[in-house]
C-alpha cells in the first residue's frame, strides 16, 4: 500500500513496527512504511547510538519524501535483574531443591547462587516467588534478610549464568531509569525522538521522574509489564501521555490466563481517559519464521481492534524475523478487514468516554450529534499542542480525523493516535484562514469531494494551547490548491 504525499491509510488503528537487524537499511524501512507502518520503534535494549541515529535519519528522509509526519518511539531498556555466574555456567534443579541466593560475586556452587541486586533482598518476604529465565524456573522464598535468601525450587529446570530474574510479588526500591537509560534518553532527546517508552514502571512516581527530565520535548509512554503497576493503574494512566500493554513480561509475572483480563482492563482505562494505548508483544510471533500467521494470532490482532486500541505493535517480527514486510502487510489487512465489520463499531462504542466539564470536551462530544444529522467527510482538528486532536480521537468519530498543526513535533506525535491523519500546516490568524486551509487540505489528502461537509474544531485565540472553543461546519469547494 504505497503512499505518496496526499494519501492516507484506509484504517483507524495504527501499526507500530520495531526496527532491528532485519530492517535497518533505508530501502527496507521505506518498504515497511509503504506496507503500512505508521510509527517506528527503536529498541534501546539493543544496538548502538550510531545504529539508532542511522535508522532515525532514514525515517526522517521518508518523512521528507512523502510530505507527511512519521512518528518515532524510543523504548528504554530499564533495569535488568539477573543471576550472577555459576561454576560450570549452569545447574540443573530438581523439584524441592533448596538454594541460597546472596550478594557474594564469586561464581555459585554447592547450592549457592549469586544474585547481585540488594534491592531484591530489601523487597522480598517469605512466601514470595522469584521467576528465573522468563518463568521457566520458579523459586519460593523460605527465609530472607538484606543479604541473602533461602529458596526452594517449585519445579525442575535449568538455571545458568546471567539469566533474568522477575520478582512479581514485590515493589522493588529502585528507579525505572538506569544510568544507561539516562544516557540513551539524552541522546534520543538530542536528535528529536517523538515518544519515549519507559520500561519497568511500578508506580506513578516512575512516570513523574521521567517527565520531569523530558518536559515538553517528547511524549511519555508507560509500559505496563509489572503486576505492581496495575495496583496504581488509573494514576499511571493519568500521569502518562500514552500506555503500552507489554504482554510479554506481564505473562511472565502473572498466570497466562490473567493477561487477557488485564489487557481489557488497561485498554478500557486508557479509552476512558482519552490516552493512546498500544497492545504489544507476540501479536504475530509465528511470522518470525513463517510467511503466514496462525489463526489464533489473527484473532488476537482483531480483538485489539474490536476494543478500539490506538495501535498494535510488531517486535521481533519486523526487527529480526525472516518476513518483516509480510508481517506488516498481514497486520494491515487484518486491521482493515476487522474495521469493516459493523460489529467492530458496536463493540468499540461500548466503552463510554469520560468527559470533563470544559469547552473542548463539549465540542468533541458534539461531533457525534452533528455527524448523525449531517454526514461529514472528515473532522478537521486544528491544534498547536495536539490536545484538540486527542480529544476528538477520544470520541472515536465515524468520519476520519484530519489533524492540522503548525508544530512539527506535535504532528509526529499524533501519528500514533487512532483515526488521525496528521499533517503539518501553516499557522493561522483567523477563522476564515482555518476554513480555507482545512477545505484545501481535505481535498488534497483525499478526504472528500467538492460539496461534502467538514467539521472543523479549533481554538481562539489561535496558537494558544488548551483554548479549544470553536466548532465550524464547512464544505469542500472547488478552490484551486494554493497551499
Description:
The chain has 483 residues and is an alpha/beta fold. It has three domains: 14-78 and 177-341, TIM Barrel; 90-166, PK beta-barrel domain-like (M1 Pyruvate Kinase, Domain 3), CATH 2.40.33.10; 359-475, Pyruvate kinase, C-terminal domain (Pyruvate Kinase, Chain: A, domain 1), CATH 3.40.1380. Helices cover 36% and strands 22% of the residues. It has 17 helices and 21 strands. The protein has helices spanning 26-35, 49-66, 118-123, 179-191, 204-214, 227-230, 233-239, 247-253, 259-273, 295-306, 316-319, 324-340, 342-348, 359-373, 387-394, 408-413, 431-444, and strands spanning 14-19, 39-43, 71-75, 90-93, 98-102, 112-114, 129-132, 137-144, 148-153, 157-160, 165-166, 195-198, 219-224, 242-246, 277-280, 311-314, 376-382, 401-405, 420-424, 453-459, 468-475. Strands 1-2-3-12-13-14-15-16 form an eight-stranded parallel β-barrel, surrounded by six helices. Strands 6-5-9-8-7-11 form a six-stranded mixed sheet, with no helix packed on it. Strands 19-18-17-20-21 form a five-stranded mixed sheet, sandwiched between helices. α7 (233-239) crosses α9 and α10 crosses α12. It is elongated and about 80 Å long. It starts with 13 loop residues before the first strand and ends in an 8-residue tail after the last strand.
Major beta-sheet overview: 8 strands, parallel, barrel
Strand content: 15-25%
Domain module count:
3
CATH architecture of the largest domain: Alpha-Beta Barrel
Radius of gyration, in angstroms, nearest whole number: 24 Å
How many angstroms does the end-to-end distance come to? 26 Å
